[in-house]
Amino acid sequence: MLLSRSSITTYDNLGQQIKGVEARAGEQARTRLTITSAVLDVPHVVLTLELRNDGQTSVGLWGAMDLIVTYSDSTLPTPVRRSAYLAYTEGVLADNTWTVASISPDVFEPGILNSGETATLTVQVSPAVGLATSNVIVISAENGITVSALFAG
Hints:
Layout: H1 2-29, E1 33-40, E2 46-53, E3 66-72, E4 81-88, E5 97-104, E6 118-124, E7 134-140, E8 146-152
């Protein structure tokens, strides 16, 4: 009797974990993000991204998203290749942070990136991005979906 109860509990736990994995996989399949624009400002420290939601899953846990930038800095005579994790902030941008500047059109669920909407993300890196360099930014949503874009220095 004790062994039967233990086996049933184990199989029940396993079944719950499988359901969770299936639910997450379904959510990931319905998520499609696209970076439509990546523009670096003139001093080469602020990158403006346009992130469009083409999927069915809304994105709104901004603090749970990861942004990683890999770029060549402006060190002379030899630029240094850098990778940096950028922290989310809701306040004023500081070095190696990012924020959501706006969402357009943001008529349904303000602050949430719903299907068909585009978020403007502002990213500040330090040190500055080097001139005439090829660089990449990677964004990972809270459900694990990633999107990347190249941008020129």
